[in-house]
Amino acid sequence: PLEYISYTRLNFLLGKILTDKKMLNRVKTTQERFMVTREKQVLAKLLERPAFWCFFTIKEVHGDDFVTIEDLFSGETHLIHSPALYERIKMYGSICKNYLSLMWHDGEFLCNIALLRQYTLSKSDLIFYCSLFADRGFTGNASDDETSLNDIINEHYAVFFSLDEISLLPPSMRGEYELKTTWQPFTLEEFDISRLEGIWDSIPLGAQDRYDLNELGEGLDDLPYQELFDLAPPSWQGCSPETTPVVRWAS
User: Fold this and answer.
1) Is the domain of 47 the same as that of 149?
2) Share of residues in the chain with pLDDT > 70 (%)
3) Which residues constitute the domain of residue 201?
4) Which of 31, 72, 183, 209 lies in the 20 to 30 Å Cα band around 129?
5) How many Å from the N-terminal Cα to the C-terminal Cα in the chain?
6) Quick one: which of 132, 141, 135 has its CA closest to 55?
């Protein structure tokens, strides 16, 4: 939507400027004389504590648009004042497990800036996703030895937020169990699906082929991490081939 494109462009610019102390000092030098008192106060607070990207979950909902959140990477809890977040909680409840937003310190509480994104992704999901962009590794810990969340988002904003395409997808459930996706990349010198037992569906995807495993066979015993099949929840025992957990390969 055009409104989303407009907001996300603004969010990109705000993230680049408000998380960078050098950029904030440049704003102070060139723009402060044109600012009203409140704008000068905000700039002073940002110079003292620049904005930051925060992946968080809800801990407690208070009145008057105040919510206690937990930063899932630092483990710190914060009080945030956000009418937008308060409205999302009322609208979606627990469907949106976690949120991602640009934050700034306004005295004793945080405020989110521009877009408030919501995901069903877990902390480990986002750590894995961030690691795809991190030159110096990413564990979620604020360390000088690894790439920060600020660095990743500010440098790869457009590609990173392709996540928005799945922002409101609810988790897949089977009974009380949430279905997870396991990523295990590896390289084979040659691959011939006919050499594997079981029933597979082949789906062409551009220059690649995707293979969906629909029914297990004895020839799969030598697959890496084959023990994952032995850890299926009890509710999967006796499933028909149509409801057997799916394994996908791309070649």
Assistant:
1) yes
2) 75
3) 177-250
4) 209
5) 34
6) 141
Token pair 């945030």 is found at: 80
Does position 241 have pLDDT exceeding 60, yes or no?
no
The separation between CA 8 and the C-alpha centre of its own chain, rounded to angstroms, equals 16
Higher-confidence residue of 175 and 157: namely 157
| Cα 88 from Cα 113, distance rounded (Å) | 15
* Residue of 125, 127, 145 whose CA lies nearest to 135: 145
Residue 35 forms part of a structural domain: yes
Same domain, 162 and 196: no
Q: Are residues 89 and 197 in the same domain?
A: no
pTM of the predicted protein model: 0.66
Q: How many residues does the chain have?
A: 251
Does one domain contain both 30 and 145?
A: yes
Helix 21-31 vs helix 37-48: angle between axes, to the nearest 10 degrees? 150
In the sheet that holds 247-250, the strands lie side by side as 199-205, 208-215, 247-250
- The alpha-helical segments, DSSP class H, found in the chain are 2-18, 21-31, 37-48, 83-92, 123-131, 149-155, 157-160
Q: Are 67 and 58 in contact (CB under 8 A)?
A: yes
